[in-house]
Amino acid sequence: MTTRTQTPPGGQLASTDQRIAAIDIGSNSIRQIVADVSTTGQIRVVDEMKAMPRLGEGLERTGALGQTALDAAVVSVQRMVDLAQQLGASRIEIVATSAVRDASNGAEFTSRVRALTNIDVRVLSGEQEALLCYRSALAHFELGAGRALVMDIGGGSLEIVLAKDGLIERVASLPFGAVRLTERFLSPTVRPRGVRDLREHVRDGLRRAAPVKDWRGVRTIGSGGTFTNLAGIMLARQGLTARSPHGTKISRVELEHVLDWMQRLDPEERAQVPGLNPARADIIVAGLATAAEVLARFDGRDLVSSGYGIREGLLLESARVMPVVADPGETRERSVREFAERCHYEEMHSKQVQRLSMQLFDALAPRMGLGAVDRRILSDAALLHDVGYHINYENHHKHSFHLISHAELLGMTPAEQIAIAHVARYHRGAAPKRKHRGFSQLDRVLRERIVKLSALLRFADGLDRGHVGAVGRLKIRWSTEALRVGVAEAEGATNVRLECWGGARKRGLLEFVLERPVEVSGPDGQVITVEEGDGE
What we know:
The longest helix is centred in the C-terminal third of the chain and has 22 residues, at 347-368. The chain has 20 helices and 15 strands. The chain folds into three domains: 4-123, 2-Layer Sandwich (Nucleotidyltransferase, domain 5); 127-315, Nucleotidyltransferase, domain 5; 330-521, Hypothetical protein af1432 (Orthogonal Bundle), CATH 1.10.3210.10. The protein has helices spanning 59-62, 67-86, 98-102, 106-117, 126-140, 178-185, 192-209, 225-237, 252-264, 267-271, 284-297, 310-318, 330-342, 347-368, 372-384, 396-405, 414-425, 444-462, 497-505, 508-514; strands at residues 4-6, 18-25, 30-37, 43-51, 91-96, 121-123, 147-153, 158-164, 167-174, 219-223, 249-251, 302-306, 471-478, 483-489, 518-521. The chain starts with a strand and ends in a 15-residue tail after the last strand. The radius of gyration is 26 Å and the shape is elongated. Helix 9 packs antiparallel against helix 11 (284-297), helix 16 (396-405) runs antiparallel to helix 17 (414-425) and helix 18 crosses helix 20 (508-514). By secondary structure, it is of the alpha/beta class. The strands form three sheets. A six-stranded mixed beta sheet has the order 1-4-3-2-5-6, sandwiched between helices.
């Protein structure tokens, strides 16, 4: 499992880390990432650069790279190599994919890059390209159990990997890239007939290359600009402002709706769609149509967007790191824990609050209308609620929100990450309010869930007021008159007076949510009476 964090260009390398630059020359864009890669596969981004010379433009018609695009691409690669060298990269890996692979003058391009940079360009086969995408997916998703399909739609080709329990069973590379298909079927304008012909062409190719026996309904992961832009559109529709589209789940029905909508817009309207990169507006329809046909071929109900691709796979390959195959839940748990450790969290207190939160949740969730997804959100928020101390104590709950919102957390959707950040933010201070920026933009259902989970976290946090783990089991009794919470001492604890006081002091939001009083009593059964308030 890899994590991806930002490191200042002048930041210090750990003794075992390698600073590596990966440059991916695609049919639509050229992308570079410079990162410090650890022996365990952690990727700490130092800098990134992107150019869009559209090397694949016109390739379907002429069979060669256009001279203007070729010249621009060479200049872009040289600039990226200069940056990598200035940042002290010990290794610079340059790979080229479909456009250079298929072009009659591809050798001219690689020779010019070699002459200017003294670095060889490795032209990947379709299978090598697919394997790098799969290596990246293996590092960022839990593929240890069950069947999975990883597809990457580039400008010139579609790569598909079918794997079972983390082991690859089949690899296919097909000439169904977004630039290539746009030029063939959707130029000069997108028309319904052209989209139908494109889909039929892709359907026929998939039928010959991708057998579906034993793979119907397979879990599907999409890598590349088509999927990050599709995720961006879906997040914008939901009013979510996420740090990354990674992990966004899109149903097959939603994909078809977006595709139908996009093909009816003119180019100018398409470029204004929220969540869509305007530079991709002219090729997004072809990419979406291809993705829709892959889902249809394998009878998939939905797909998950990956924010990682060939570059990250190339970094791991160059560092000779093979991602560990993760079982369900493992990637998320490890990602959250490692983020907490990077923020130097108070482990004993955070785990105690997490444990108490889970006791409260398990007792009250059915009455609060909460489910398994909410339990995971609360668990993660409890572990991370104080990471804002990493900045300073003052307003640390708001700092926690900022840090969690911008963290590279794997194994969860962007909506779940946003919920975790809000729940952590509201563990103290003012209760959630519609006037709070960010919270007010969420849909009503998500806001209600955040309020409920925040109420549980506040109360659990109060029950460890001394940060010493004094509370053991909670005895929770529900009645029409009140929620009664009996507090027992943990083994080795001398008393829980401070903790009972802390819980009673932070009961207000839970009382609001449950619409009844919350009574806190110690081991002697005496109910604690304090004036409720969160002014800490």
